[in-house]
Amino acid sequence: MMACSFVETRARHRGGPGRSLRAVALAASALAAACGPGEEPPGRSAAALQAAPEQPPAASGPSELLAALDAGAGGEVEPAATREALRPGRGDKLASIAMRTFVYASPERGAAKLGYLRAGAVVERAAAPSGDAGCPGGWYAVHPRGFVCVGKGASLDLDHEIVAATPAGPRRGQPYPYRYVVSRKPPPHLYVHLPSEAEQRRVEGRSRSQGTPAWSLRDEALLGEPEPLTPFFATRRDLPKPFGAAEKVRFPAHRGRARADSAFGLISTFAWTGRRFGLTTELDLIPIDRTSAVVPTAMRGVEVKTEGTPAFVMHHGVRTLKPDASGELKPDAWAPHRSGWVLTGKTAAGGAYAETDAGAWIPASALRVARLGRDFWGHAARGRKWIDISIELQMLVAYEGVRPVFATLVSTGKGELADPTVTSATVQGTFFVREKHVTATMDGDDLSETSVDLRDVPYVQYFHNSYALHGVYWHDAFGKVRSSGCVNLAPADAAWLFEWTDPPVPEGWHAAFNDKGGTLVYIHA
Questions:
Q1: Which of 131, 132, 175, 281 lies 20 to 30 angstroms, CA to CA, from 305?
Q2: Within this chain, do residues 429 and 470 fall inside the same structural domain, yes or no?
């Protein structure tokens, strides 16, 4: 198999036989309090009309359940204030200080992993820990569900140096959750603090007299205005490394060079000593003039808000037409290359022109029209959400029941319809979204003809082994095969799908897992 390979750890463990009755009670209490009775997660049902599951008759709410289990275990029932302190919602918070701070289903190491937080994230927690089994710092319930161990991965100190060195998190929902740059040759050095001019000369051999090249000015314009220095960076303190971040070498001012053909998501950029430096998600500082800023793609899918069939303009220089007073079609405007439209089904001039729901007519020969899928699994009949991907059309259509709601062009594996076990073809079949990451580090997809190190690939949704739907910032070939096996999406389309599919990723989390499977993904010729 030659599917794109992601570096993010995805192993998750089941709960073991040593779980106590008390731990089960606390887990059930936190989950019930956070989610409410019988609420189906977003993405599970299009109409949200399915009946809520019945509640256990022995306990009408989380407090009663906890009290009943405590009494059944032979212990005294704890005061209400004590029980409330074990649930999030009182204003107490917890900070992630690791690249992946896992959230567990119950307060024990062997429990299933529900997702993880990224370094610098701050989430709501319970006031008191729910035990310390295998976690000397204590297990804290977090919003909206699950438990986090305070220690190497998390801290109760909101002024922790990792938090202070992380001025912002990902801009979730935006097409590009970070600002992206690709390394030039040679790749940039990874500075441990904002370097003085003397340090820059010593490390890079750079002289201020070289000035700023024109391509760097263009890149700075693409990145927007730099942020003001935060108190942490103003002191020029050495950057800490989040637990789990790689640090193979360390010099007084830098950590060596980035890998060749690296790409980075930048949390922030700062103006310093006449240059611009970017802060990576692993908390390194890189000089922007040793990189090239990513040029955003204009590719956008189309939301289907009326009855009709999605289609995309695949030629350049296509004119739309509109009927004049006599009903004759006359040239009106331009239909941009790869623009999405919704066809009403009406045609003119013997099928030469197709009508859109915007009232414009487009030459049928310029369009790639979706083949609407069929309901093979009963999802449509139950109003469920599902995704249809055609390798031949290089098109994705998202459905709510039998109705298409969104469509876009994609790039699947370069092996096209060949065997994915021996080529870079995309695997075919019926799968379910099992993991969602706001961003993830990967290698294997082509940024160049050599191996690549792509940081913070946006909106990754795994559906089978290492195959995933994800946004790309290193090519703009949507509508053509291009990947090493994954389904490549324009970042804006990846962001739309990420919020639409199940499992949902809670606010403040960086990823969510669902071993039972979320939204169905059907991939075919």
A1: 175
A2: yes
Query: Which one-letter DSSP state was computed for residue 188?
Result: P
Neighbours of 14 (CB within 10 A): 10
What is the value of pTM for the model shown? 0.85
| CA-wise closest residue to 455 among 185, 236, 170 | 170
- Cα 248 to Cα 245: distance, rounded to the nearest angstrom: 10
pLDDT band at 51 (very low <50, low <70, confident <90, very high): very low
Residues 357 and 409 in one domain: no
Residue 496 lies in a domain: yes
Residue whose entry in the numeric block shows the structure tokens 């463990």: 13
Examine residue 144 and say whether the peptide bond preceding it is cis (omega within 30 degrees of 0). Answer: yes
The length of the chain in residues reads: 525
> Could you tell me whether strands 5-6 and 435-443 are parallel, antiparallel, or unpaired per DSSP bridges?
antiparallel
SS3 content of the chain, % helix, strand, coil (to 5): 15, 35, 55
Q: How many helices and strands (H and E) does the chain possess?
A: 8, 33
How far from 361 is each of 60, 303, 309, CA to CA, in Å?
Answer: 59, 18, 14
Residue 80: give the domain boundaries: 5-160
Instruction: List, for residues 395-449, the tens digit of each pLDDT value.
Output: 999 999 999 999 999 999 999 999 999 999 999 999 999 999 999 988 654 444 3
Residue 496 main-chain phi, psi, to 5 deg: -60, -50
Q: Is the pLDDT of residue 114 over 80?
A: yes
**Three-state SS annotation for 61-102:** CHHHHHHHHHHHCCCCCCCHHHHHCCCEEEEEEEEECECCEE
